[in-house]
Design brief:
The record marks 198 as: Important for catalytic activity. This protein has two domains: 23-209 and 427-483, Rossmann fold (3-Layer(aba) Sandwich); 215-423 and 499-545, Rossmann fold. The relative contact order is 0.18. It is α/β, with parallel strands linked by helices. α3 (82-96) runs parallel beside α19 and α8 (215-236) packs across α9 (252-261). A hairpin with a 2-residue loop joins β14 (478-483) and β15 (486-491). It has helices spanning 5-11, 39-45, 82-96, 109-114, 122-126, 147-159, 171-186, 215-236, 252-261, 269-274, 279-295, 309-312, 314-329, 331-335, 339-349, 352-360, 363-369, 386-403, 429-447, 501-515, 531-534, 539-545; strands at 25-32, 53-59, 69-74, 101-105, 117-120, 162-169, 192-197, 240-245, 265-266, 301-306, 413-418, 453-458, 468-473, 478-483, 486-491. 44% of the residues lie in helices and 16% in strands.
Length: 548
């Protein structure tokens, strides 16, 4: 593999492992756990893996352990640091016994079901340490949810004598890990299943999972580019930039980037839902900021928009929920409808209130709401051009305000969507350390003999050598949600808390940012230099922990 000078330098970086993991460890059990909601339903579905205790690791006596074969899967969308999770896992099982072996299933869960794999050797893994992407074994979005898949996967596990499987993924992938762990436990398959928390969206977290890996790097990448745009914006002084950011189910990315860059407007989906705002409410609030800045001679600015905003507008959320059920129940019939008749077919089958809202949408947006659902039954919000919708509606509203004598200025808009740009960046020092620790910690969970657990590394605002490690039962994070028209157990997404420190920090300053040009230009991720420049975690994480 050819490498740039930066890649060569990064290959030599040694992630800083928590001290507790540098020697022999023992697993210490804490209190028994319950799911975050729907306890009775979750317990019935997971009788063998529900109510397990929290675990933390302490220094322990050296114990001779037999070699173990482990499998690993990268599941779902990419996130910076995945290669370091695998590197940490490899080093961890080799530390237990140098004859242990690691097998990677290719292109995600599909490779597990289809028996496509490769052994990951030291020389191969060394090529990928501290690099971005998931190309070490590839990833995929195949859902592990049927007995047939579990049994087919078990065939290759037995053939390779694999006793533990690590699934690196987001909330849906780790939900599937919990289901797989429950099934293998119920049939005494002798296979442990361990999860690792991955998603740049930042919505897989709780007190024991303080952040998901990749969030730190991705938001720093986006913040760099937003800063560049704001610098350009402040140089030409003639454009309003509408910037949509990844984060389909939560606004953590938009909020972090706002804290990093201080834009004129940042919409937080969770606040929109809490205030029961309409699409027109959002448009009017942006138009008011544009007009206020124009009154000061500033016909330029920046607006940050979370990817999943459309689903948080209460009226749109109700419409999408009905659309999801309608299209799930009538998928074959809808597929046969001519394109020119699709929208009328939908309107005829919606409730009167939702039909009225659907009819009021621009045709392009209405069609985007009807696109094929993702593998989890969700509308593909990344394909909905919310940034253009808002920009065009703001332009129309400003024309109305100008006719009313309430706006004197020029309005020109530009549109951006930052998503894939951040998913495969070389991990920041924080993510490089965090991911390596998550993988090494997963090896310790395997050695402890547990199943149905997620690797947990905590105390993340401290220097990495002081982080604490352990695991939590995945069922602890679960609740029941409607998917594909039926109630299913899933890990509960962590949304932006409107009473949380990060949002309150933003809310206290946003009125000033709206009128003034207080842009910050964060610049690129720094890998080499003083810790206060290179090793700092996200502002979200720092604010969440500053009073603990």
């Amino acid at each position: 593999m050819k490498k740039s000078a930066l890649q060569k330098a990064r290959a030599a970086y040694q992630p800083k492992l928590p001290i507790v993991l540098t020697g022999a460890v023992k697993a210490v059990e804490g209190k028994a756990t319950n799911s975050v909601a729907d306890q009775e339903d979750i317990q019935k579905l997971f009788p063998n893996t529900y109510g397990l205790p929290e675990i933390h690791f302490e220094k322990g006596p050296a114990v001779k352990s037999a070699p173990i074969n482990v499998g690993v899967i990268l599941s779902g969308g990419q996130a910076p640091g995945g290669h370091n999770v695998i590197s940490g896992l490899f080093d961890g099982i080799k530390k237990v016994n140098r004859d242990s072996r690691l097998y990677g299933f290719l292109m995600g869960p599909g490779g597990f079901v289809d028996h496509k794999y490769m052994e990951l050797t030291a020389s191969y893994i060394d090529e990928y340490r501290n690099t971005g992407g998931f190309d070490i074994i590839g990833s995929g979005r195949t859902k592990l949810e049927t007995k047939a898949q579990f049994d087919k996967g078990l065939e290759i596990l037995k053939e390779l004598n694999i006793k533990a499987l690590v699934i690196i993924g987001g909330d849906d992938s780790n939900t599937n890990a919990a289901i797989l762990a429950e099934y293998y436990k119920s049939i005494n398959a002798g296979v442990q299943v361990i999860g690792c928390p991955k998603t740049i969206d930042g919505d897989l977290k709780n007190e024991m999972i303080e952040t998901s890996f990749g969030f730190d790097t991705a938001t720093k990448v986006y913040s760099e580019v937003i800063g560049n745009i704001q610098r350009d914006c402040n140089s030409s002084k003639k454009y309003w930039h509408f910037i949509k950011l990844m984060g389909r189910s939560a606004s953590h990315i938009a909020l972090e980037c706002a804290l990093q860059c201080q834009p004129n407007v940042c919409i937080i989906s969770e606040e929109v839902e809490a205030k029961k705002e309409t699409l027109n409410d959002i448009v009017n609030s942006i138009a008011d900021v544009v007009a206020a800045r124009a009154a000061n001679g500033n016909n330029f600015g920046s607006v940050l928009i979370p990817e999943g905003l459309i689903e948080f507008i209460p009226a749109m959320k109700a419409l999408i929920a009905e659309l999801n059920d309608l299209l799930a129940d009538n998928a074959e019939e809808f597929a046969k409808i001519d394109r020119q008749n699709q929208l009328s077919w939908i309107v005829d089958r919606l409730s009167s209130e939702n039909a009225s809202i659907f009819n009021s949408l621009p045709e392009g947006v209405a069609r985007q709401l009807c696109l094929d659902r993702d593998p989890h039954g969700n509308v593909q919000v990344s394909l909905i051009e919310t940034e253009k919708l808002l920009g065009e509606m703001v332009g129309r509203r400003l024309n109305e305000m100008k006719a009313e004598g309430r706006y004197v200025g020029k309005f020109a808009s530009m549109f951006h969507f930052f998503g894939y740009e951040g998913r495969c960046a070389d991990p920041s020092n924080f993510d490089a350390d965090y991911c390596y620790a998550l993988g090494f910690n997963a090896a310790c969970l395997i050695n402890a003999g547990v199943t149905g657990y997620m690797s947990s590394v905590r105390g993340l605002t401290k220097p990495s050598v002081q982080w604490t490690t352990g695991g939590i039962p995945i069922t602890m994070m679960m609740n029941m949600e409607r998917r594909h028209g039926a109630m299913k157990p899933v890990i509960q997404k962590a949304l932006v808390r409107l009473d949380g420190a990060p949002f309150l920090k933003y809310a206290a300053q946003r009125d000033t940012w709206a009128i003034n040009t207080d842009f910050i230009y964060p610049g690129p991720i720094q890998y080499f230099g003083p810790a206060e420049v290179c090793d700092q975690p996200s502002l979200t994480l720092r604010y969440e922990h500053e009073n603990r």
